[in-house]
Structures are given as C-alpha cells and as structure tokens.
Amino acid sequence: LVARMRPFGTTIFAEMSALAVRTGSVNLGQGFPDTDGPAAMLDAAAAAIHGGRNQYPPGPGVPELRAAVSAHQKAFWGLDYDPDGEIIVTAGATEAIAASILALCEAGDEVVCFEPYYDSYAASIALAGAVRRPVTLRAHAGGYGFDPAELRAAFGPRTRLVLLNSPHNPTGKVFTPDELAQIAALCEEFDAVAVTDEVYEHLVFTDADAPHMPIASLPGMRARTLQISSAGKTFSCTGWKIGWICGPRDLVSAALRVKQFLTFVNAGPLQPAVAVALDSPPSYYEAFRDDLQRKRDRLCEGLTAAGFAVLRSEGTYFVTADITPLGGTDGVDFCLALPERCGVVAVPTQVFYDDATAGRHIVRFAFCKRDEVIEEAITRLARL
Ligand code: PMP
Ligand code: GLN
C-alpha cells in the first residue's frame, strides 16, 4: 500500500456495522435508513431496467436527471445551473468529493475543512497529495461552533479549497448565514474554491437557527463553488450511489475530466428514477423532514433518560452525545463496549478529528431508523 494511504484503515462505518451484525446489536452507527424511498422512484427504476436502459449512460449523466437536478436547484435554492455543462452525475457524493479534490488540488495545496469531518474527506485529500487544514468545531450549550480567528489562521497562500459540509455530519450543525459569510469572504480573499457537501440539504429541522443556505447563493460565490449532493439521504436509497455536482462550467468540466477515469459513468437505470424522485411535490420533502425530526426528538429523550448529555442536533440523520455523565472518557472504548453492555452500536466521533482530544468524549447515534428500532434501542440503552 502506498505511503499516503497507510494511515487509513477500514472505515469506521464498515467496522461498526460489522460489529452490530456480529453481536446482534441495534445498529445506530452507520447512517442508512431501514425503509425504502418513494414508490414512484422504485417503480421508475424497475421500469428502466425492464425497459432496456441497461447500457452505459452518457458520461455527464442521463439528460432527464441533469434537468431534474437543475430544476431542483432553482426551486429550492434559487440557483441556475445549465444541465448541459454545469451539472454532472457521480457515484454518490463520495465520488463527487474525490473528483473535485483530485481535479483542483496540486500536490502540496491546502484544503481547509471543519473537523469532525466525514471520513472520506481526509482520504480524498491524501490521494491528491494535498494537505488538510482542519478547523475544530467545538460543542457548547447552543450546539457546535468555531473560532473565527482559527478559521482565518487556517487560510494561507497554498489554500486551494474549502470543504464545507452543512448540514454537518456527525454533529448535526447547520452553518448560519453569518458563518457562511465569513467563509465566503475568506474564499474571496485567498482565491479559494468552495466544495460543498450538501447531502443533508433537506434535513434541517424546524427548530434550527437557520434554514439551509448553499454558500453558492452568497454574492460572488457561484463562480467559485462546486455544490455536491446525492439521492441517498433525501430519498432513502444510500445503496444506489447516485450523486451530482453543480457549478460553473470551468470547475465542473475539471471534475468531469477526473470522474471519467474513476467510474466513467454511473448506474444507468437508477438515474431516471432519481429524476422522478427529485420531481416529488414539496409535501414529500416536508413530510420527510418532519418524520426525521420526530425520530430525533424521541431518540434524544431516550438518550437523556439513559444518562447521556445530549448535544444539539439541528439537522442530518445524527445526534451526538457526551458520555462523561455515564463515566465514559474515551468514545472508542465506550462504543466498542456498548454492544456487550446493552446491545446497541454507536460511532465514536474522535475518529473524525485530527485533534485527538477534541471529540474524545462524544459519540454519534443515527436516528434514520423505523420507530420500533428506535424504541428497542431506547429500551436497551436504559440498561446502562
Ligand atoms: N457526505 C456526508 C456528510 C455523508 O454523511 C455521506 C454519507 N452518506 C456522504 C457524503 C456520502 O454520500 P454518498 O453515499 O452519496 O456517496
Ligand atoms: N454517511 C453515513 C454515515 O455517516 C455512512 C456512509 C458510509 O458508510 N461510508 O454514517
């Protein structure tokens, strides 16, 4: 194995899901729903498979999906992207992130990202030979925040990209307009590109401080932003791996240049089905959010009753909790012991930090599960 990949073991998600299967635990670790997405989407996929759409689709993605992404960006975020040249389809957000970084970073270039960060970020930055410059999100009473001075200090002459994930996994933080404006101003000052991971764009709860706002919608930012999302989270089909990138022509064509040699094209019959899902009425998106918000509230109640100090989650599939009141000091040890103690799997957040001390006492629970699964987890956690 090449040196730049040696620090990376098996992903924590695969490791914790395997632990859940091995121990028969309720899996609140890896974030995937346990119900299927909209019936019209599933029917459209079956129809496409039986209708002969089983060969290589066009490299940038099937035209109806690019058109549907374009209409979605306009309807929800007021952003105009030409389906022909400003939108490409990828193998989930994961490939979109990797292709964007590999396309834009020379070896030694720096990528500013907020930690804890989704685990593929560090690996994609390493694959490009780039250097990550983490800015730590710290838990406080109102949620998670960063120190503006620390953010500024992370920028420098080698900064090429800012990798921004909002709503944020694993914390559930939604970046506020003021925080986004600070980031945008630094992108302008240091001539950096923003690569945004917005896979949870439709999961901002009604009690969040602010609605979701793509940084691309701030003045001057559309020209320097690659906006990434995916069908997996919004339409409960994480195994389909259909994602997309929207941005100005020059940046999108750079990402496409790389993407064509990573996967060439992606699942042909699933793309028209995702186009159908994106055309869902606004009521679908609202019901989806309300359902997850209710699940969040119930799980938070159960975690609090079990003795965790629950931290605020404003969005995503996830809530984080402090294990200190339960006598825990190390999240990894705690999560490895949890199946034995009560038959539940969670994910330690310290693996998403460069600063090994920052998230040491914090663990993440996923609530994108059927109500009876959440109830079972709550019953088991009460044994702690
Ligand atoms: N980014 C974040 C923040 C995620 O939580 C995930 C997990 N699904 C991904 C990217 C990956 O998305 P995809 O499955 O579409 O590759
Ligand atoms: N995004 C999901 C999570 O954070 C899982 C993704 C994965 O398994 N790579 O749990």
TrEMBL record:
<dbReference type="InterPro" id="IPR015421">
    <property type="entry name" value="PyrdxlP-dep_Trfase_major"/>
</dbReference>
<dbReference type="InterPro" id="IPR015422">
    <property type="entry name" value="PyrdxlP-dep_Trfase_small"/>
</dbReference>
<comment type="similarity">
    <text>Belongs to the class-I pyridoxal-phosphate-dependent aminotransferase family.</text>
</comment>
<dbReference type="GO" id="GO:0016212">
    <property type="term" value="F:kynurenine-oxoglutarate transaminase activity"/>
</dbReference>
<keyword id="KW-0663">Pyridoxal phosphate</keyword>
<dbReference type="InterPro" id="IPR004839">
    <property type="entry name" value="Aminotransferase_I/II_large"/>
</dbReference>
<dbReference type="GO" id="GO:0030170">
    <property type="term" value="F:pyridoxal phosphate binding"/>
</dbReference>
<protein>
    <submittedName>
        <fullName>Pyridoxal phosphate-dependent aminotransferase</fullName>
        <ecNumber>2.6.1.-</ecNumber>
    </submittedName>
</protein>
<dbReference type="GO" id="GO:0005737">
    <property type="term" value="C:cytoplasm"/>
</dbReference>
<feature type="domain" description="Aminotransferase class I/classII large">
    <location>
        <begin position="26"/>
        <end position="381"/>
    </location>
</feature>
<keyword id="KW-0032">Aminotransferase</keyword>
<dbReference type="InterPro" id="IPR051326">
    <property type="entry name" value="Kynurenine-oxoglutarate_AT"/>
</dbReference>
<dbReference type="InterPro" id="IPR015424">
    <property type="entry name" value="PyrdxlP-dep_Trfase"/>
</dbReference>
<dbReference type="Pfam" id="PF00155">
    <property type="entry name" value="Aminotran_1_2"/>
</dbReference>
<keyword id="KW-0808">Transferase</keyword>
